[in-house]
Amino acid sequence: MTDDTPDSLIPYDEIVQEALRAVVGRVLGSIVSGGGTLPGAHHFYITFKTGAPGVNIPPHLRERFPDEMTIVLQNKFWDLEVHEAGFNVSLSFNQVPAKLQIPFSAITAFVDPAVDFGLQFQAAVSELEPEAHDDAENDGDSPQGSAEGDSNVVSIDFGRKK
Question: The whole model's pTM is what?
Answer without folding.
Answer: 0.74
